[in-house]
Design goal:
297 residues; two-stranded antiparallel ribbon; 10 helices; 40% helix; transmembrane helix; Uncharacterised_pept_Zn_put; metallopeptidase activity; metalloprotease; transmembrane
């Protein structure tokens, strides 16, 4: 997606964390695109997984917070830099869900959003770059190491387009909406398999991401200017590329040469694309992955 150059960013939605002191082990947050698959393929124990300032700030190794990118002020900035793009996506997502979440029965509050490098401490434990993007329910916060976007392209074969990057953010933001809805508390996410609760939760977050994309060209900044230019089909293809790249079957095939649906935790590439498109075409109220029969997933 392309931001309108003249749209205004108010700042304060995204913070940046630099390196933190190394801490061994630790639980990682729910919603990481690859976190459960790390457990499957490396044997790492992830049993503990849980499911406004001005501009972008950074936390240095000592824990101090400083202003890192006060230049993130317009859509032109968001088109030019990934940090500003994250800020712009966050402001658009916040505007969208402020209006949409009440329709789903949720009282909306915005999540915190942290970019980090190498590793960071969270309410879900210590996360590293290998974790992938994730949402941490105790913090009510998203965590993204933007180097993941390079890996998404080089290792997982995704497009490197801006919408592929923002799809990742929108998916994790969808987990925040689920937290507000009580979905995490009400859904058994301990099992695996193609129709498991964990897969249903992840597919709903994909659908919520698609719903935001479908309305993104209509969300407005504080001055009434739309954040984005109209979405093109090639940009939708970027998001679908990212959804396909992180499907359980796609990752398993690359890692082991075979596919085991009984170990699915996020859904197949086809499912992730299909539910993203459902949200894009029909909106967030169409995203009921929790009560539909397994054959409908």
């Amino acid at each position: 997606m392309t931001f309108n150059d003249d749209s205004q960013l108010s700042g304060g939605r995204v913070k940046r964390r630099g390196r933190t002191a190394a801490v061994g082990g630790g639980a990682l947050g729910v919603g990481a695109i690859v976190v459960f698959l790390i457990a499957q393929f490396t044997g790492v124990d992830l049993s503990g997984v849980l499911g406004d300032g001005s501009g972008v700030t950074t936390i240095q190794q000592g824990g101090d917070t400083v202003d890192a990118a006060p230049e993130c002020r317009t859509g032109r900035d968001a088109n030019a830099s990934v940090e500003c793009r994250m800020e712009g996506a966050a402001e658009s997502l916040d505007a969208y869900w402020s209006a949409e979440a009440p329709k789903l029965g949720a009282s909306y509050t915005r999540p915190d959003f942290y970019l980090f490098q190498d590793s960071t401490d969270t309410g879900c434990g210590t996360a590293s770059s290998a974790t992938g993007p994730f949402y941490c329910p105790p913090d009510r916060a998203l965590y993204v190491d933007t180097s993941f976007y390079d890996e998404l392209q080089s290792r997982y074969g995704s497009s490197d387009g801006p919408l592929a990057q923002m799809y990742v953010v929108a998916h994790e933001w969808g987990h925040h909406v689920q937290q507000l809805q009580g979905t995490f508390a009400d859904t058994d996410r301990s099992g695996t398999g193609a129709t498991s609760g964990s897969v249903r939760v992840e597919l709903q977050a994909d659908c919520y991401a698609g719903a935001w994309v479908g309305d993104a060209a209509n969300t407005e900044d504080a001055n009434g200017q739309t954040f984005f230019e109209p979405i093109t089909r090639s940009q939708i293809d970027d998001a679908l590329s990212a959804a396909s790249a992180v499907g359980d079957d796609s990752i398993q095939r690359r890692a082991t040469g075979s596919v085991d649906p009984d170990s699915f935790t996020h859904g197949s590439s086809e499912q992730r694309q299909r539910w993203f498109l459902r949200g894009y075409q029909q909106g967030a109220t169409s995203c009921d992955t929790l009560s539909v029969p397994g054959s409908a997933l």
